[in-house]
Please model this.
Amino acid sequence: MKNLFYYLSALLIMVSFVACKTTTAQKTTDITGKTWKLTELNGKPIQLKNPKNNPYFKLDMNGMRYEGKAGCNGLGGTFEIKPDMMRIKFNQGMSTMMACEDLDIENQFTKAILAADNYFVNGNTLTLNKAKMAPLAKFVLE
Model:
């Protein structure tokens, strides 16, 4: 009888360890408070003349604001997000207007984030999408 008690106790402990491990291994879909660096636009890797001007953005839940660089120009504005549905909307904001080497990339980047209405996270990769079309832009966690 003692052996049965020990086996059942050991089994219960093992099940609780497995249950705890499973819940901590879940993926996170929280994209806020992180810096996301652009790697692709419209399914193609970006080709920058000046790699120091790699576009990026960051979402700040305080004030629901986004900020970043479209390359050499800064950009920012407000956004709306529904993380449980993976929906996002960037509102037209402000941008500086300096002449830059990679102006075409900047324009495509700005159009992509303003057109996006949903997102997907896979590990350290974020994609911004419009409806169920191919990804508009792909980012990596910086």
Remarks:
- Helices lie at 2-24, 103-115.
- The two ends are 57 Å apart (CA to CA).
